[in-house]
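Fold this sequence, please.
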Amino acid sequence: MPSEEGEDASWIGRAWAGGTNGREVVDQFIFEVPSYLKPHGRVLLMQSTLTGVEETIRKFNVQGLKARVTSEQKLPFFETLTLIEATADL
C-alpha cells in the first residue's frame, strides 16, 4: 500500500508500507520470484487496486512469467483486492 516515510516504524506499519507509490515491495518480489520458481511453477499475489494491478501483470511478463487476475473482491468505498497468478511456463 502507498505509505509515507516513517509509517514503517511499527510492526503493523511494516506490514502495509510499500513506499510512496505502494509498489516497492511488490516490484522487488516480482524481480526476485523467477529465481525461486521451478519450471511450470506458480505464485499467487494478493494486491490492492490502489497499487496498479496492470503494472504488476506487465512486470511479471517482463520477468518471463505469464500473469493473470484470478479473483477479485470489492471492498467498501474505493478499493478492490485482486488475486494475481503468475506461472513460469518454461
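The radius of gyration is 14 Å. The longest strand covers residues 66-74.
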